[in-house]
Design a protein that fits this description.
Blueprint lengths: L5 H20 L4 H6 L1 H24 L4 H33 L1
Helix pairs in contact: 1-3, 1-4, 3-4
Length: about 100
């Protein structure tokens, strides 16, 4: 069995965070992001899953609690920026239509 290093664990968690970022970035229907509760629930579920993976890695001692919190915080900030961009785009579209 291969030994898990802190670098390997962090890399795997970072890949999972990037997958969540891509989930939102690749959503073609911007209106769905801003109005679809199901999509929001999918993102929330993915974030919860990542938080549990981080908690597990922290419990095992392969990453520090601070590193785990930083990873989640950065992802949440990135997602907030993406959501803000979508809402701003939606406002512009509604302003042009109205």
């Amino acid at each position: 069995m291969e030994t898990i290093t802190p670098e390997m664990a962090y890399s795997l968690l970072l890949q999972e965070a990037d997958r969540i970022r891509l989930l939102i970035q690749n959503q073609q229907n911007r209106q769905c992001i801003s109005q679809c509760k199901a999509f929001e629930e999918v993102v929330d579920t993915q974030m919860y899953g990542l938080s549990r993976q981080i908690a597990f890695a922290t419990t095992l001692g392969v990453i520090s609690s601070q590193t785990g919190h930083q990873l989640l915080s950065e992802l949440e900030q990135d997602l907030n920026v993406l959501y803000t961009d979508v809402y701003e785009e939606q406002k512009l579209v509604e302003g042009k239509e109205g």
